[in-house]
Amino acid sequence: MLSLTTLLIILAVTIIAGLAFYAGRLLQLVAAQKKAQQAAELAKHQGLLVSDNKALESVLLITRAMREEQCDFSEGCWRISVLLSSLKTIDATTLPFKNIFAFYEGIKDLAILDERKKLPKKQRMQQDLKRMKLESSLNLGITEELVELEQYVREKIAENKQ
What's the farthest any 2 CA atoms get from each other in the chain? Predict the structure, then answer.
């Protein structure tokens, strides 16, 4: 018959083996969870890049239209600023297109569409004058930034597709 010491050793080895198996299983679960989390983050990031690329394609289109004088600066700067601010993977406040953003900041509170039509003629003219003065003062800077912006957007689109 087995001695008490032998039985205790067998029991201890069995308990340790069970705990080792359990620890190994927990490590496998943690590794699987980490892998799934990384895959989910990658999928989310890819989705954000797709969304950003759509916005960047629109910025590119507007930029070209502005450079070809098919879109006036006030509408173009408005649209570009809103699109750049909507990007999920790029912080628009760090972008170097200060004149475009300054023009948007200067006109964003002006009335448009039906709101504009409801304004008295004098107030409409005052807003037009403000818009024209601002455009005149920022025109050269915006024109230069459009070239830089087009290049920047092309690079970002190519980078996001990799």
Answer: 111
Nearest 5 degrees, angle CA 104-CA 88-CA 59? 45
**Cα torsion 24, 30, 31, 36: sign:** positive
Q: How many Cβ atoms are within 10 Å of 111's Cβ, its own excluded?
A: 13
Specify the DSSP class assigned to residue 114.
Answer: H
Span 84-101, pLDDT tens digits: 999 999 998 899 999 999
What is residue 1's predicted lDDT score, i.e. its pLDDT?
Answer: 67
pTM exceeds 0.70 for this model? yes
User: CA 156 to CA 126: how far, in whole Å?
Assistant: 39
Tokens 């200060």: give the residue: 98
